[in-house]
Specification:
- The protein is mainly alpha-helical.
- The protein contains 12 helices and 4 strands; from the N terminus they run H-H-H-H-H-H-H-H-E-E-H-E-E-H-H-H.
- A two-stranded antiparallel sheet has the order 1-2.
- A hairpin with a 5-residue loop joins strand 3 and strand 4.
- Helix 1 packs across helix 3.
Length: 262
């Protein structure tokens, strides 16, 4: 059994799990909490309580007057900051620790098919790291929005994407930062990516005049126009960063009429 005092590796796995399950499911009956408890040699109650401790460090929950459990430790705060200051590094480290503790390879842990990973050494590890971190980004963003599209409320995971606010290629440091993500259904994800819609800094949907001037496709009314000006459904954690939304508004969103590119 583990000692009562949590060590850094355990806390890294706790933060990893905290990010990937909806806030309302932090309880001892959650199968994922039970699974982590077995890995750590702790009780599900101890793990759920630790995740509640971590919630007290979450600034978004504080804004919503949700305090979480009290008495988090200095080490809790330190590990929490490790994630928030370098998501890319912390996520990969947490997955490596989890793979080691469960006796799996990173590829097995992340369900990565190995037949297309013909490279070896550092190049292979770099590819695996990207895929693992992308997988974490998707899980954390969808969990933050309780697996529902923030525009339509659609709740079918197979039709949902974790959409980057600042595109993947434009900001290396925030590629896997959950606050650079929105949970969108596949159609609105594509529209967001192509600049046909954006989310304003007061968290409302804005449809580009470029597409609004298209009167020949009646389906656009149902899929896009009806949501113009509607406030998005906010996540339980990882609120979209306003600076990231400003970037999308200014650099991705189509502000003027222009010729459609297919």
């Amino acid at each position: 059994m583990a000692s009562n005092k949590w060590v850094r590796e355990e806390l890294i796995l706790a933060v990893n799990l905290y990010c990937q399950i909806p806030f309302g499911t932090v309880h001892a009956r959650n199968p994922k909490i039970i699974e982590l408890a077995k890995i750590l040699g702790r009780t599900p109650s101890a793990v759920s309580w630790k995740l509640a401790n971590l919630a007290s460090l979450d600034p978004i929950l504080k804004k919503r007057s949700i305090a979480g459990a009290s008495h988090h430790s200095n080490l809790d705060a330190k590990v929490w900051e490790e994630f928030n200051s370098n998501w890319d590094l912390a996520i990969f480290e947490s997955e490596k620790i989890l793979a080691e503790k469960t006796g799996q390879s990173l590829e097995q842990l992340a369900n990565i098919e190995t037949f297309d990973l013909s490279t070896f050494g550092k190049e292979r590890e770099a590819i695996v790291k990207v895929r693992i971190n992308q997988n974490f980004f998707r899980k954390s963003v969808l969990a933050a929005y309780s697996f529902k599209c923030c525009i339509t409320g659609l709740g079918t995971p197979e039709l949902l994407n974790a959409s980057h606010i600042i595109p993947w290629a434009k900001d290396v440091e925030n590629r896997v930062n959950p606050r650079n993500g929105l949970c969108l259904n596949a159609i609105h994800d594509r529209a967001f990516d192509r600049g046909l819609l954006t989310i304003t800094t007061d968290f409302k949907v804005k449809i580009s005049n470029f597409i609004k001037n298209n009167k020949t496709d009646p389906a656009l009314q149902d899929f896009l126009f009806r949501y113009d000006g509607v406030e998005i459904k906010m996540p339980t954690r990882f609120f979209p960063n306003v600076a990231f939304l400003e970037y999308h508004n200014k650099n991705v969103f189509k502000h003027i009429e222009c010729e459609m590119s297919v």
